[in-house]
Amino acid sequence: MAKISEFVMRVGLSLLLLLYLAAPSLAQNSSKEAEIENFFDGFLSAQLLSYRIPGAALAIVHGGEILHCKGYGLANIRTGQPIRARKTLFRIASVSKPIVYTATMQLVEEGSLSLHGDVNDYLKSFKIPKPFGKAVTLAHLMTHTPGFEDTYFRKWSQKMKRFPTLREYLSQNRPACIRPPGETYGYSNYGASLAGYLIERATNTTYETYLEKNIFKPLGMKNTTARQPLPKKFKKHMAVSYRNGRPIGFELILDSPAGAISSTAEDMAKFMIAHLGWGPKRGQPILSEESFNAMHERQFAHHKMLDGHTFGFVHEVINGERVISHSGAMVAFRTRIILLPDLELGLFVAYTSGRGSEAGRQLKGVFLDRCLPKKEPPETKQFIRSAKAQEGLAGWYRKTRYSHTSAAKVAGLLGATLPLSLDGSNLSFLHSRWRPIAPDVYEEITRHEHPRRLAFKRKPRSKPKFVYVGMKAYERVEWYERPTVQWAIFILCQLIFVSYMAKSLWRLLRKRRERRSPFLPKRDFWHQITLLTTSLLNSSLAAALCLLLLSSFNNPVRVFYGLPWWVVIPSAATYLSALLAPLALLTSWSTWKKRHHSLLDTCHDYTVVLAAFTFVLWLHHWNLLGYKY
């Protein structure tokens, strides 16, 4: 019955979309507030039922006015408290970043910070290394191009005896610089937090206090805060988020400028109005027109035909119009902000469930289709790519939002590394098909509305190092890093370890019979114990790893809080595995010299030794050798 009900709701939602898209443009009929409210009342209510989301809040602004601002569903299922757009707070997650970057642009205006100066000029207790001889700048941080790896461990918490300062967190959790700054996009929460810390260094106050005085107060955002834990006056108005039907407590974000702000739909409407050029009704605007333009214009892109990034927002061109946006995600809060600066339109939405990611994408599509009616492109001849021109494109590619030095690198075995294959002149990548529209540039065929674009950057007749999809970048991996090869190595090693454990069990069961035979030589006890211990330990490590990977499918954000004991203990035991491998080689050599084993047994023993060394190298490759969390 539940599946039938959900199917009915989705059909109803689709019909509602068709009716909406058939209506006149929102941009041309902004005075019809009642019509807008009636549609979104039905649309959001249908979304909550269809995606089983407890609550949501929506704000739409146009021309300096709030067209629609309303809450839907419940802020707390247990108490029945409804969501009120003007009072109910949501964790806006990464939508915090445009607010923090707006504050940094204020300091750039007054000369306290430099967009293109070395960030190390503002740091004292720690420094950002320069392995490529190029300094990281504030502009790099605001466009996610500092070249940092991304780490996932211990970013969130719900219970802490002492909350670390921003300086302490940043100095103790510095990521490795894996690419030259300014060359490749790689989403970085650390970079956003570092920008927040630069505010503190430039103003000699906390970034939370600076936001309150220079962003929230001037814009009248009375129900917005970046403080953690939540101040007492806001606690009763905080929405409860849910994952799999269970409430999630208030999450403490250690890299706080990257996503710690809590706000209401009405306050976010005020922030959007300011960015659309209207600002507060009284007093000075929070930024100059020049600074706002810098935050709205494309500052970085991998290719001129692809989406880019501004100082704070993702930059897209949809149906010929500029669209800037940002999304946010926590364990169970999902938020999205969309601005159309040229049309003075903006939308903010927040959901209290992880299913809000799907709902938010759907809402974005409807909003943009409504505001930016699709224009029929001029007829063009089909662009055909020869097989020779596409040589070297196929392969495996990995997301650049990736950890190179921590155990989070193992995500490369779980979908972070994906195949790209050729299909005639088309490509298959990211579960979509792409057709060529220019040399080394492709457009999505699978998605008809707002199709994405894909591009390669390479030298003639060479394999590309990266493939770019919209704003995101994927780096090419070598053949031995492909998940199929790595899983084959892992499984083969475990089969060898299991075979030795099975042989040892068979020997144990036949031990009495062997003792009665005067013709069988005496086995080397310590040699057998070493190989058996090596096999048991490595199989246990593999089992713990598989258990962690399986649990991550049900709870992929587990690593943000830290790892369970049943992973931490085996991680320390990997050092013992590294010591046992050479010991097993020594005992095998000694036994072979004394001719205690048959040729078949000797070959099997050396196979176990080889598997032990291979598994240690495998653990090292994925940063699983030792406690790298």
Can you walk me through this structure?
With 629 residues, the chain is an alpha+beta fold. Helices cover 40% and strands 17% of the residues. The protein contains 17 helices and 22 strands. Strands 3-2-1-14-13-12-11-10 form an eight-stranded antiparallel sheet, sandwiched between helices. Strands 15-16-17-18-19-20-21-22 form an eight-stranded antiparallel β-barrel. β11 (314-318) and β12 (321-329) form a beta hairpin. The longest helix is centred in the last third of the chain and has 30 residues, at 525-554. It is globular and about 95 Å long. Mean pLDDT is 85; it is low at 1-12, 17-24 and 516-522.
Shape type = globular
Task: Give me the oligomer status.
Answer: single chain
- What ranges have pLDDT less than 50 throughout 5 or more consecutive residues? 1-12, 17-24, 516-522
- The overall pLDDT, averaged over residues, is 85
Strand order across the biggest sheet? 3-2-1-14-13-12-11-10
Give the helices and strands, then pairings:
Blueprint lengths: L1 H21 L10 H19 L3 E8 L2 E12 L4 E2 L7 E2 L4 H14 L28 H5 L13 E2 L8 H7 L16 H15 L3 H13 L12 H4 L5 E3 L2 E3 L3 E2 L8 E2 L1 H11 L13 H8 L11 E2 L4 E5 L2 E9 L4 E7 L4 E7 L4 H16 L23 E5 L17 E7 L2 E4 L2 E7 L2 E4 L8 E4 L9 E4 L2 E5 L6 H27 L1 H6 L8 H30 L3 H4 L3 H29 L5 H23 L8
Antiparallel strand pairs: 1-2, 1-14, 2-3, 4-9, 5-8, 6-7, 10-11, 11-12, 12-13, 13-14, 15-16, 15-22, 16-17, 17-18, 18-19, 19-20, 20-21, 21-22
Helix pairs in contact: 1-2, 3-6, 3-7, 12-14, 12-17, 14-16, 14-17, 16-17
